[in-house]
From TrEMBL:
A Pfam family matched in the record: DUF805
Keywords annotated in UniProt: Membrane, Transmembrane, Transmembrane helix
Protein known as: Uncharacterized protein
Keyword Iron: no
InterPro entries found in the cross-reference section: DUF805
Source species, domain of life: Bacteria
A GO cellular component entry from the record: plasma membrane
Transmembrane feature ranges: 23-41, 62-78, 90-112
Annotated source species: Lentilactobacillus otakiensis DSM 19908 = JCM 15040
Length: 127
């Protein structure tokens, strides 16, 4: 739970490191929470979230977009911190733009162990 709390408290932290648990726990929890929240919203509105029929649905869509944007920022910065932990530049995130192979390579980068003597000395919990 501490890793998930750190994910939201270090939303804009770039110049630090994040170990594997500080990356993977928020990623997994966000996917699970996102699916559950989406299912609840669709149940409450009675139709898929991408179909907007009235003003109430528009407010659901707006809140959803804001939360997704904040989650995207947090995911982007935690990816950068995870790459810093493996002593790589955050520009390695761009490898995800290469279809299939880039996604597989980025996944491999995310599961690699951290480097003790990396250029970034601080872990995100110490920032």
């Amino acid at each position: 739970m501490q890793s998930y709390t750190e994910f939201w408290t270090h939303l804009f932290t770039w110049n630090a490191k994040a170990d594997r648990s500080q990356y993977w726990i928020p990623v997994i929890v966000n996917y699970l929470l996102g699916g559950m929240i989406l299912a609840i919203i669709e149940k409450m509105s009675g139709h898929p979230i991408d179909h907007i029929y009235n003003w109430t649905d528009e407010s659901f869509a707006l809140v959803t977009r804001i939360v997704v944007f904040l989650d995207w920022i947090g995911s982007f910065t935690v990816k950068a911190r995870r790459l810093h932990d493996t002593d790589r530049s955050a520009l390695w995130i761009l490898i995800e733009l290469i279809p299939i192979i880039g996604t597989i390579w980025f996944f491999i980068l995310m599961i690699l162990p951290g480097v003790k003597n990396s250029r970034w000395r601080k872990n995100q919990t110490q920032v």
